[in-house]
Amino acid sequence: MEWHKIPFSKRDILFFLLLVFGSATFIAMYYGQSWKTGVADAGFFVIQLVLGLFLLVNMLHYYPPSKINAWPALLFSLVVSVLLVFGGKWLARGILDTNAVFFVFYEKSIPARLGIMFLLLYCVAIFMLLIKNFEKGWNQQQLGEMSRKLSKDAELFYLRQQLQPHFLFNSLNSISALLGSDPKKARLMLQELADFFRASLKKDPMKWERVDEEYKIISQYLSIEKVRFGHRLDFRFNMEEGVGDLMVPPLLIQPLVENAIKHGLYGVTGDILIEFTAKKEGNYFVIVITNPCSQQSGGPRGVGFGLESVERRLYLLFGRKDLLHYKKDNDNFTVSMKIPQPK
């Protein structure tokens, strides 16, 4: 295993070895050895330690424990320490005179050398195991978060893909009906439909937009529906000053508008008025949409695909289920939505 694979910087390793070298020199001199003997002994000990660290790093690389486990590291550190210390004695015996000061000091200090070598290797092994397991846990957490984000993005994309064909089919059915009775209106509606989809397809589903930009898309959508239903459909906007600068996820309001038109016209005879109120409350953008509904027909059945999709998108975006409310009051159906503003 290459040294650059060790989870320490070169500066850390150098500082650690210099600390060991200085400590070994000081200990030798403290026990009556000359500074030359101390430096030689410390250099020899550092060379043994570097060899032990190299063996230890390779062991942990090729035989990593599945979890933090002190026993393999303890056993390996002990075996390597014994081999290095007694191997060093054998090497010194072959090179030096057995009466040499360095060799005599080395032989007398074998128990201490063995204990210090084992302690250093074992501490490094445990520290490396902790780092590796921390990195493994961190990587698993990152993968889990990435997987959840991809799943959420995929569901958001799926909801948007469902909404557009839902609206497209209704519009094409209306165009088909108008082709025979009023070709001019059919062409106008087709042109409005093309402009609407051209604008909506340019939007980045992950990028929020100003309320003013979203209002343009809603206006294009209402123009299509105005051609479709003629004089029966009318709408009124009440927007507080400064609301246009607030931010909203793209195409989140349009399904609410579609739901209001669909269920406002359901069972209602005569003209209908749909009201939009947009305002800021604290750190929220709030939009309230009110449409008439028929008491005799029972009103809209269920909450509709549009409301369900918006409710799901809000939960995926904010993890909350209290941002969308709807109620039926006498002859009106009201939907209110709050969108937290980015900080």
Automatic annotation (TrEMBL):
Which N-terminal residues, if any, form the signal peptide? none
Q: Kindly give the InterPro entries that the UniProt entry links to this protein.
A: Bact_2-comp_sensor_kinase (IPR050640), HATPase_C_sf (IPR036890), Sig_transdc_His_kin_internal (IPR010559)
- Record-linked Gene3D superfamilies: Histidine kinase-like ATPase, C-terminal domain
Looking up Pfam families in the UniProt record yields: His_kinase (PF06580)
Membrane spanning stretches: 12-31, 43-63, 70-92, 112-131
Annotated Signal transduction histidine kinase internal region domain residues = 154-233
GO molecular function term, any single one: protein histidine kinase activity
UniProt keyword annotations, A-Z: Kinase, Membrane, Transferase, Transmembrane, Transmembrane helix
Main enzyme class: transferase
According to its UniProt record, the EC number is 2.7.13.3
PANTHER family, A to Z:
SENSOR HISTIDINE KINASE YPDA (PTHR34220:SF7)
Listed name of the protein = Sensor histidine kinase
| Protein source organism | Negadavirga shengliensis
